Amino acid sequence: MDPKEKKVKEEELNVENIQENAENIQENAEEQPQNEQAEEQAPLTREEELEQELAKAQETIEDQKDKFLRLSAEFDNYRKRTMKEKAELVLNGGEKCLGSILPIVDDFERAIKTMETATDVSAVKEGVELIYTKFINVLGQNGVKIIETKELPLNTDFHEAVAVIPAPKEELKGKILDCVQTGYTLNDKVLRHAKVVVGE
Fold first, then answer.
1. What is the rounded CA–CA span in Å between residue 28 and residue 171?
2. Contacts for 22-31 with beta carbons within 8 Å, 24 or more apart?
3. Which of these CATH numbers, 2.40.70.10, 2.30.22.10, 3.10.180.10, 3.30.470.20, describes 145-200?
4. From CA 107, how far away is CA 122, in angstroms rounded?
5. How far apart are CA 121 and CA 113, in angstroms?
6. Rounded Cα gap, residues 117 and 110, in angstroms
7. pLDDT, tens only, 20-56
8. For 74-88, what is each residue's pLDDT tens digit?
């Protein structure tokens, strides 16, 4: 074989080898990221798993801590608001009741002025009785009721015996004969016991 031809053939072989090497390098470069992905998908070690769990737990703790702080602040605001409302209620609780009594005070003022020039005692008496009836009605609207006593058996929950006298009739023994001081209840709770005289 001619030396020139031999040289050309060697050069061609070298070119082919270089091309093959270039292709191999390119294939290896393409395979490398796949290998890296395979490494990423490889199962985690026990330490890495614990680190991930710890990170999640810390995130949950921070979230719960934030929620707790918000709830605590909300509750504190609610407590302060409730205390303020209670204080206002104690201070102004009787406003409605007292407001309903004011017209009766006006009636008394008018009655006093009328008494200065009145000559008819029965008319004055009738006027005072009307004011009294109006007053009892207003008390009833505000939950205040008179404790009934007349000829009822003594009930120590509502009545207080201040005297015991002989009963005029047999059937009145152990029953209330007279009421010395009227008793009242407020929404079924005793406001003042009725002071009574009982027959024996």
1. 121
2. none
3. 2.30.22.10
4. 17
5. 14
6. 12
7. 766 666 666 555 555 455 445 667 788 888 989 999 9
8. 999 999 999 999 988
